[in-house]
User: Which sequence fits this backbone?
């Protein structure tokens, strides 16, 4: 399939604008030839208008129809075949094996939400039947369930050109819940975006979905993105990216006449507690695990471990030496784009210059080659607890080891941590018992607590939580990965004394969908009698 | 129990400030004698600090312990007896029967959340056990559930001195979920607040809850309230009141370094669709129902029907005439406070002066007596659909009848409605069939859709939704009434590969609490094998 470089608005492709963008290959260090036309204001308005109209039909589609739609998107993505894989590799610098795995993840996510729709209980159906003879007043018949919000704007992420982008988690969950989706394509992988957007468009046509259920818009985040955020027809926003970009979206939303839900996942330094028993047992093994995690995907995972907290001691010294050695032995690899690479070296140099920070290892700067080399820094707990800036994320294969002089300092370091996607505890059973109060504090800081493993790797399943307290995200009540993500683009609606035939199937007495519901306070799949 | 006029911070009472406030009796039109000392900045900081410390203990209490705490609060409120009822009557102007009923509602709410805690499934426990032999990679053990957020700031509402105030729905749900609560007492019912706050304090002491689990702060919303909203230790906010006060809180939150959930319920005009078949069948009966609903509690319910939408015709004329007659026959009654009463007359006069608005009936102004007299206005669909200002709430016993010239105009009127707590449909079965598309649009505008009844009256049950799209609330994903409210002050936390003994009971393999959980995607109460 050739690249057309156009905006996709429902079933049409448009490119009335004059400005163009091009994607960059960070491995060959060359601009890719295809030109992508930035959307005009008219085109953006048309996308939102079409989505608004499509919503009226789409929100009333059956769960089964939407499940088939999601599965068809997955099929069409697979049909895009090698052309898609190669384009994603060229635009991201990620190896083919990783992109192939990411495609599998993307397809699995779509299928997971199809399964969630067929199982059906996600709508949280609650039924309190009428009690006509209650004293002193009868009780009305009251029922509620989740319904979709309306057109959702999704910003594609740079670090997952497939799984967190055009047909990624936010798109899948928003479509599953019954919302049209408008994608703001990421500048770094415009060709990948087009191929996936076409797959969604084809699936929509094949499944008889309304024109406007999906659109893909080309443009810069700071101009086109801001314009879309402020459009009154947009009812919710999903974003994965940097703190600055996320906050500019969040701040723009405060300028809207109507506030809307904003799920911006903005990065995290993913602190790791290296407890003394564990290090004493095997400092070298932990170092090996962490060298691999820090450099995985050139350190460009949201859950990359950027902060290691330990207590002073011989085992910590062994760990530091081993980690330094392991990182020095890694080979630099391509970063996602030139801006990310430039900021990686700039940020790590800024970190290195901060008071009390010692450079244990810093690979040579390969900014011209768009490659990231590993780095490891060290600072005392005393310096860490007196300088909030040491918590600034360095996006890339770098980590900061904080060595605390005693348990009180460690407690203090944990207490002042900003909000995080993940927190990891490396500890023996005895460590976990001894530091139980510290662990309790630690849980207040993150969305997911991992025991004796690395934070990189986010399983797509029912129980996953990928989110956390600010500044990790702007809304700690939600996850962007896993089955629960379907509720982020939904709201409860209550029907009082509604005739049976007008109720959604999920709320009908007979429970035709066979879903789990709460009836008179009890969880059941039985019909209402 | 005598009134001390102090701020209650955990187990101590403080009043170091110099400024005082007094409550007003809107029936006798006199200031009540007791002086209430406005909190100092130090006292506010102390309340938040104590709540922050208390949170560490309180969030780890068992559901059973919190259930007993809530029930004990209910007991202590009942023990406050006639003194509490009389004080609430004096400070609100509401009749004794209404206040007695509201006390019952308050106590029932506390007991409902106790029942929710004992049933236990509200934590949404999800378990995906490890799959060690999965190919190509093993799956970790991943579990999640809802945990509390931290200190919650609750603004007491003027219109429900008990049920939406000191021990009202937000306090009950926040405490139930495991969060300390800090109340910003309402200036109108400071004595009622103190009596209830003391009941909560006594219950906390009796139940062995940590010092700081509850505080009550005295002061104006525009000064003390704003200061509290911006305090970094506050983790979420609940509010019920006017649009202006709600938005000033919402805007203040955007100035915080960390965004937090804000549930501001800000009012609603609760549109009613009067479909033609229904009016033809019994215009007079509908008018009688609505005259009672418009004037219930002097029109001071959040769900008061302030907008009636009908189609031109003989039945609508009969309805208008009957409603006008019924409202003229009502007796004016006390309003909650002088400010509300003043604004009621001011707002209804402003409405009356708008282009195209006809006054069908307006009772004499009784602003000096702090009493509200009923009023009914009429406007054409043409004027309504061209003037957004006609949707401004007139808080009090007034309503605006919009008469549309045809179905298209009615559709247009519905389409441009702002977000609402409720929408009501008065229609025969045939009406409902014929206007099905209109009803579909209508559901996009509200949190609860009521069929053939009045919107006033909000049942406290599992399926209730009291919330809705902006400007009805700042967060349409939540309810302030009913069992689901417990989730508004909670967030998901995920444990990965956590040893059994460190997991919360709700996530342990054995399911010691016997709650419903999702295990491997299936809803079950079985233990994990």
Assistant:
């Amino acid at each position: 399939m050739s690249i057309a470089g156009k905006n996709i608005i429902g079933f049409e492709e448009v490119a009335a604008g004059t400005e163009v963008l091009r994607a960059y290959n960070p491995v060959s260090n060359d601009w890719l030839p295809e030109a992508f036309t930035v959307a005009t204001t008219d085109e953006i308005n048309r996308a939102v208008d079409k989505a608004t109209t499509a919503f009226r039909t789409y929100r009333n589609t059956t769960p089964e129809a939407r499940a088939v739609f999601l599965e068809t998107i997955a099929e069409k993505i697979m049909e895009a075949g090698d052309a898609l894989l190669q384009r994603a590799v060229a635009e991201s610098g990620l190896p083919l094996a990783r992109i192939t795995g990411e495609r599998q993840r993307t397809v699995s996510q779509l299928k997971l939400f199809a399964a969630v729709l067929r199982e059906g209980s996600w709508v949280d159906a609650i039924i309190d039947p009428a009690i006509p003879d209650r004293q002193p007043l009868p009780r009305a018949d009251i029922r509620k369930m989740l319904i979709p919000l309306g057109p959702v704007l999704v910003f594609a992420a740079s670090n997952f050109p497939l799984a967190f982008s055009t047909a990624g988690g936010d798109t899948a969950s928003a479509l599953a819940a019954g919302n049209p989706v408008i994608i703001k394509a990421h500048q770094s992988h415009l060709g990948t975006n087009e191929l996936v957007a076409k797959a969604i468009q084809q699936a929509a046509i094949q499944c008889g979905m309304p024109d406007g259920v999906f659109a893909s818009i080309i443009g810069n985040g700071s101009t086109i993105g801001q314009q879309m955020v402020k459009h009154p027809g947009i009812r919710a926003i999903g974003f994965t990216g940097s703190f600055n970009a996320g906050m500019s979206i969040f701040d723009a939303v405060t300028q809207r006449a109507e506030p809307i839900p904003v799920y911006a996942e903005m990065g995290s330094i993913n602190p790791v507690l290296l407890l003394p028993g564990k290090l004493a047992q095997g400092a070298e093994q932990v170092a090996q695990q962490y060298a691999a995690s820090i450099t995985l995907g050139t350190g460009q995972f949201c859950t990359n471990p950027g902060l290691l907290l330990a207590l002073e001691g011989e085992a910590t010294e062994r760990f530091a030496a081993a980690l330094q050695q392991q990182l020095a032995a890694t080979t630099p690899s391509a970063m996602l784009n030139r801006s990310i690479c430039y900021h990686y070296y700039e940020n790590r140099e800024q970190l290195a210059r901060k008071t009390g920070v010692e450079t244990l290892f810093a690979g040579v700067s390969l900014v011209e080659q768009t490659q990231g080399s590993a780095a490891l820094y060290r600072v005392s707990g005393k310096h860490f607890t007196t300088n909030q800036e040491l918590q600034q994320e360095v996006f890339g294969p770098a980590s900061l080891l904080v060595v605390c002089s005693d348990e009180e300092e460690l407690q203090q370091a944990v207490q002042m941590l900003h909000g995080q996607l993940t927190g990891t505890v490396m500890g023996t059973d005895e460590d976990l018992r001894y530091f139980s109060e510290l662990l309790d504090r630690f849980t207040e800081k993150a969305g997911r607590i991992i025991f004796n493993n690395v934070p990189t790797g986010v399983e797509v399943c029912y129980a996953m939580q990928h989110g956390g307290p600010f500044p990790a995200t702007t809304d700690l009540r939600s996850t962007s990965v896993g089955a629960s993500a379907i509720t982020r683009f939904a709201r409860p609606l209550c029907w009082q004394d509604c005739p049976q035939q007008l109720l959604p199937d999920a709320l009908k007495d007979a429970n035709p969908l066979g879903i789990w519901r709460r009836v008179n306070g009890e969880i059941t799949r039985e019909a209402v009698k």
Q: What stands out?
A: The longest helix of chain B spans residues 96-119.
